[in-house]
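Recap quiz, item 2
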Amino acid sequence: MARVNYTKTLTEEYTRLYKTCTATESQFATIDKLVGQLLKNRSRYENVADHLGIPWYFIAAIHNMESSQNFSKHLHNGDPLSARTKHVPANRPKKGNPPFSWEESAVDALKLRKLHNIKEWSLPRLLYELEGYNGWGYRLYHSHVLSPYLWSFSNHYKSGKYIADGTWSDTARSRQCGAVILIKRLEEQGKITLSSIQNPIFLYSTKEEAEADKLQQFLNLFDGIALRVDGQPGESTSSAVKKLFGSYLKGDPRND
Amino acid sequence: MTKYILALTLIISAFLTVGCQEKLQSGKRTTHPTQAVEPIPTVPVKIPEPTVPTKPVQPISETKPTVNTEQEKMLSFIKKEGILKVKMGEKVCLLADDAIDYETFVSPNSTMIALETLLMSNLQTVRIYKKDAEGCFKPLQNKLSTKLWHDLSEQEGFNLEDVSHPRMKFLKWIDNEQVQIELSGEIENKAIDTNVSADLKLLI
């Protein structure tokens, strides 16, 4: 499948969609029931999450989507834990012998997708990884429909999905609660806190860099600093940082 | 004073995360989930002798398998970032690039390939490819998945759109033109799980 890069545009889109997302009222009871079950098993998700550095609610949402929160199935694809997976990805986990515990299978599934390598789990990143976990088919080939894997049971999804034979139907409608709705409900209940802003990473650069304009705007709040807000964290911006904090931006040649 | 505390927090955060970014850059971290599928660079597949299918369960069809050259008998598959290619000697052909992951099953006479395709994490189909005149593998004109699911839905009286987590699993080549497939999924918490055989000649 073609690559979908994690871009600033995508980040903004995910944040906007999340902020404007409302759950379908007729599904409130179903959503609360699902979220209640996720919370009941929170410690099991946290055991895996802590091991891999992945938010527990990401794993919980995937678990709901892939195997309806059934702890006797592989997180990879819903195959039974009594044997290695038979569906794609087949013959997982490679290590150990069946029957597998849900936890060891989950660790294998998440590592297989290299999710343990992600260091930054902001809100948009979370949504990006959720959509990617399901596959980019909606975004790449049917962009008029937001993925039901994320948005089903919300104002952002009406109909349109892949059906059993792999073909597309504009009229078919997902009957499964979208992952974002579960996560949003967890946040509404005060069980989790999500940040829509990524940790700022500022390196010296003479080119335009993401979030550098915000740094410049921030620095301009201080007396004696007047920067052109051009998004280029170059010499002037770096000098302003030094003026306030005693050292230039990382990568500034004047540090040498 | 508040401004200075805010500023200090921001910059400390920036400096701390710079280190993280450098580590990530040095590790060449990728961001695309489809890259996360473990790459299997080149997997040679031994093609069994055409006249001796490994697990015959039905009589061999009337079409006799062609005798392949040694080169043709050895196919290998290149799978990377959701793209699958088949390599036959020096020739490389694209099989698919629209799914998360794939599993391949070559027919006894190596003229067809059954491709388990993980189209979405909750949707798996099987596609059939046949070797064309130019020696590349092309999908059959009619889809196996469409035929099998529609036949089953008619037979059992359900709507295809209502099936959740639909999966097709390739079970075996019955002969060079027949396959056995498992169809599974759920309709309103009721499981579907059935094995069917299909004559691929009908799809050509």
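The mean pLDDT of chain A is 92.
The radius of gyration of chain A is 22 Å.
End of item.
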